[in-house]
UniProtKB/TrEMBL annotation:
<keyword id="KW-1133">Transmembrane helix</keyword>
<feature type="transmembrane region" description="Helical">
    <location>
        <begin position="33"/>
        <end position="53"/>
    </location>
</feature>
<protein>
    <submittedName>
        <fullName>Septum formation initiator protein</fullName>
    </submittedName>
</protein>
<feature type="coiled-coil region">
    <location>
        <begin position="59"/>
        <end position="93"/>
    </location>
</feature>
<keyword id="KW-0175">Coiled coil</keyword>
<dbReference type="InterPro" id="IPR007060">
    <property type="entry name" value="FtsL/DivIC"/>
</dbReference>
<dbReference type="InterPro" id="IPR039076">
    <property type="entry name" value="DivIC"/>
</dbReference>
<keyword id="KW-0472">Membrane</keyword>
<dbReference type="GO" id="GO:0051301">
    <property type="term" value="P:cell division"/>
</dbReference>
<dbReference type="Pfam" id="PF04977">
    <property type="entry name" value="DivIC"/>
</dbReference>
<keyword id="KW-0812">Transmembrane</keyword>
Amino acid sequence: MSKNIVQLNNQYIQDENQRRRYLEEERRKKNRFMGWVLILVMLLFILPTYNLVQSYQTLLERRQKLVELQEKYDELSKEKEYQENLSKRLKDDDYAAKYARAKYFYAKEGETIYNIPDLLPQ
C-alpha cells in the first residue's frame, strides 16, 4: 500500500518557497559578512599583539644590555680608582722606587733580585 504524496503548486506555495530562498540567501550573506568582520577583528588584534611582543623583546634586550653596561661601568670605576690611587702614591719618591724595583726589576748595585709573582707594593 503505497501512498503518493502530491505537493500543491499554487501561488501561496510558490511565494513561500521564494520567501524561504530569499531568507536563506540573506542568512548566507549575513554569515559571510560576519565571517569577514571576524577575520578583520582577528587581524586588528594580531598586529598590535605582534608589535607588543616585539617591544617586549626589545625591552628585555635593553635591560640585559643595561646590566652589562652597569657591570662594565663598575669595573672601569674600580680600575680608575686604582689608577688614581697608584698615581697619588707614585708621587712619593720612596714608593716610586719600591714600585719600579718590584715591577721592572730595577736593582741597586750589588743587589740580587728574586722574582716573586704578584708581589707588587699596593
